[in-house]
Amino acid sequence: MSQHKKYHRRKKSTLGLKSIVSLIVILAGMWFGLGQQPTSLNSIVSQISSSLFHTSKSVPSDQLAKLDYHSGDPSYIFVNHNKAQLDPNSWKTNKVIYANLDNFNRTSTGNLAYLEPRNVVSDENRVRQYVEPTAWHQKFVNGQPIINRGHLIAYSISGGISSSGQYQPNDISGDQNNPKNLFTQTSFSNQRIQTIFESKIRESLRKGNKVIFFAKPIFRGNELMARGIHLEAISTNRSLNFNVYLFNVQPNVQFDYATGRSHIDRSMTVPEP
């Protein structure tokens, strides 16, 4: 190999390293500029690495069931480079299409919602939850429940939608106890991650937009507990657009996804999103 080629390859590698270092320095500066005070350089790198992971890693939707979560991995990833594969021009009527349960009584097909501002409701309309989806085995760790009844289409954005999926003005509390709209979801996935994206939808609706939202729990084979949930949404004016996969995991807990049973594992870490 000529000296010129060696130099060119070395120079290219050096430039790549410099770019990464420069990016870390810039992001660290932004972090401090926002008033954050990480306790160490490792903390800075960890925060930056997590951010870079979400913006760079993307998985095709047909590969989601094959993904395994490893302790310390980010709690969600992008699908299709975070671009929804929904047609905003397909919004015609305010409704939710609830798919039938599969042969294992799972919500494995996913639900499709056509939403508008009148569907936004507040927490005061929450009612008692009593449906137990497949793999429902509640346990408390440090006094807190490890699983929730996860709604595919959140009640807070489905005000007026009946269990048939049609808009009913008098049903302001939304569809909260529909077996076709529930799955066993970890408390972390439900409260720490999914709420982030539900908030994006509510914000878009409150701005007067119409939104198409698709939510699908991802099961592997005949397992009764979902490995995660696939969420994608787009507004008709395209100002809202996301496509993500949330791992159905819980800090300090390991699950047997075939049954939903679990055991405490203090080595299991799940970073905050």
TrEMBL record:
The record's section on Gene3D superfamilies has: Extracellular Endonuclease, subunit A
What EC number(s) would the UniProt record show?
Answer: 3.1.30.-
Transmembrane region(s): 15-34
Instruction: Quote the Pfam families the UniProt record gives.
Output: Endonuclea_NS_2
Q: Which residues form a coiled coil?
A: none
Which keywords does the record carry? Answer: Hydrolase, Membrane, Transmembrane, Transmembrane helix
Gene Ontology molecular function: any one: metal ion binding
- The kind of enzyme this is, by top-level EC class, is hydrolase
Q: Does the keyword Nucleotide-binding apply?
A: no
Which InterPro entries would you find in this protein's record?
DNA/RNA_non-sp_Endonuclease_sf (IPR044929), Endo_G_ENPP1-like_dom (IPR001604), Endonuclea_NS_2 (IPR044927)
Start and end residues of each DNA/RNA non-specific endonuclease/pyrophosphatase/phosphodiesterase domain? 90-264
Q: What is this protein called?
A: DNA-entry nuclease
Organism of derivation? Lentilactobacillus parabuchneri
